[in-house]
Amino acid sequence: MTGTAALTMYDKIWEQHTIRTRGDSEALLYVDCNVVHEGPFYAFDALLQEERAVRCPDRTVAFADHYVPTVGRERGLAGIADAEARTMIEQLDRNASLTGIDYFGMDHPQQGIMHVVAPELGMVHPGMLVTGSDSHIATNGAFGAFGFGVGASQVKHILATQTVWLKRARTMRVEVGGCLGPGVSAKDVVLAIIEQLSIGGGVGHVIEYTGPVVRALSMEGRMTLCNMTIEAGARAGMIAPDATTFAYLEGRPRTPRGAAWTDALASWRAVGTDPGATFDRHAQVDGGAIEPMVTWGTAQDEATAISGVVPDPECFTDAGRRLRATRALEYMGLKAGTALRDVRVDRVFIGSCTNARLEDLRAAARVARGRQAQVPAVVVPGSQLVKRAAEAEGLDQVFLAAGFEWRSPGCSMCTGSNGDRVPAGERCASTSNRNFEGRQGRGSRTHLLSPAMAAAAAVSGRLADVRDFL
Amino acid sequence: MQPFSTLNAIAAPYFEADIDTDKIIPHRFLRKPLSAGYRNFLFYNERFAPDGSIRPDFVLHRAPWDHAQILVAGRNFGGGSTREGAVYALADFGFRALIAPSFGDIFHANCLQNGVLPVVLPEAVVAALAARLLAKPGLTVAVDLPRQIVTLPDGSDCPFEIDPVRKEQLLRGLDDIGITLSDLPLIEQFEAGYHGQRYWLTGKHE
Fold this sequence. Notes:
The complex is a heterodimer.
Chain A: H1 9-17, E1 18-22, E2 26-30, E3 33-36, H2 41-49, E4 60-63, H3 83-99, E5 102-104, H4 114-120, E6 129-132, E7 146-149, H5 152-161, E8 163-167, E9 170-177, H6 186-197, E10 205-210, H7 212-216, H8 219-227, E11 236-238, H9 243-249, H10 258-269, E12 281-286, E13 293-295, E14 303-305, H11 319-332, E15 347-350, H12 358-368, E16 377-379, H13 384-392, H14 395-401, E17 405-406, E18 427-430, E19 445-448, H15 451-460
Chain B: E1 6-14, H1 21-24, H2 44-47, E2 70-73, H3 85-93, E3 97-100, H4 105-113, E4 117-120, H5 123-135, E5 140-144, E6 149-151, E7 157-159, H6 164-172, H7 176-181, H8 184-197
Parallel strand pairs in B: 1-2, 2-3, 3-4
Antiparallel strand pairs in B: 1-5, 5-6, 6-7
């Protein structure tokens, strides 16, 4: 591509970070910010064994989030009964200390989920290339950055070189037109998009979101949208920066100040897609037609409006989808034709990198206020900053009065790696991002939905239409 | 990593669409050290009952598929999270090549970093192969990386695509780091230019 060609945001970021190319479509890309958690201990072990140093320690930041307990934090590491979980955190403590990388350990005053803390501290800027050892690093696309997940071997490569080899993806523009109805949130929008594209629909592509619905979303809403883009198989999701983005970033701890802010802003304004740039694929979504959504199956595209029914697998024309849906209904213990609003739940989880930010907690609290949880319901704020801000607004008191539990930040019940699991056979209404078989615990049944919908489910004891509670 | 050139081995059929990395290795095993033997966690929830007892009729428990080195899978195999443990589990079990109509992006990259060859073939071909394998357990498939050809049980050859640089690395058993670091001056030169234009990315900002 030459100087005057109209480029997409992805094209621009790709080219600005290309050190060199090789083969068909692979490039060595510079990594502005590398975000890791307890998971890729294999990478640190291997680096140590090979006697390699971390090349740019100040460009990697680590977070203890997947394995930290959400209760009993005052007891510290010693209070973690699960020896393996404790080891995972201790390993990260040690590796961070040995390598000198930036580290937000369990006791850090700003501890939290990596995809909540990095954005709220202003670590990610428009035009950045960000890698993450957890695939939901895509969350950062909300800032007009290109954020994508990498495996442990790639983490090792990035630590050793501050670069990553990557194959160039194709581009897809998803335009969300119209305007959202009451009770409909970013979570519903992304579930509707995945339902339309299917879980493999975005494979090989980076998705850019445009349209009035996207422009009207707050940064937190945009983060929810980009976060779950990978569940459509896409590499990443991105939204061009605008006034909303800049207003969010201004004054955050890790954003530039003074003259640097002015200069950075000028650079960020040039990040968005040029008028007339072409995308490989396009999709259109009618925002006005989106209803509050809920998943019924074991993949994120097995979803429907709360006003709908569990579908008959025969209605899928694709044999693979039919088989998948048949297995899903069996696993989930659901019958075709059942109204989603008749489905009882056993447990509710409000948390995860998808929906545990302040606005998510406000939305859930609005529904919970003055009502009572009918089933065990747990609220896990995405970070200590979010937790303190929520407490300053009295949200914790609203939840506690409604019989919900108010916990310490971490990934918690999304993956259950810290021990917060859903027992076998139980149905959990969850604001997380994956409803795969056994995701929240072996034999557990997950229904993904928005925070307000989760609160509605908690106070009803079943999946419920949040619009009845507004 | 172990170099890959040619392989002639028993292929096991596991032809289902959208097998995500949570299915390949449940999250609770990702905390285990490699020395625990990740083959023990492969497809765990399907292979073992909740009480830990083995399910003898799971495909990979039935001879001769219990020592297959090639897995024939459905489309979008390995979609989901970044967990490289999914590849460790497959490799530790003995799989050196995977054949499927498509793979999850990150999973595909992870395979290449660990000497496991992901082969993409048309869905119809893979479906027919899986059916053939199911009908006659013990059939072998040959994978020739230099010629980029898979030889099916009926003797027919099926070409496959692979990025030429990735192919070279697999043939030589090389992962990326040494190759990249031999280019360090180029990286440093890039950095100087890139940060020269974006000075606010260097040093701390207060």
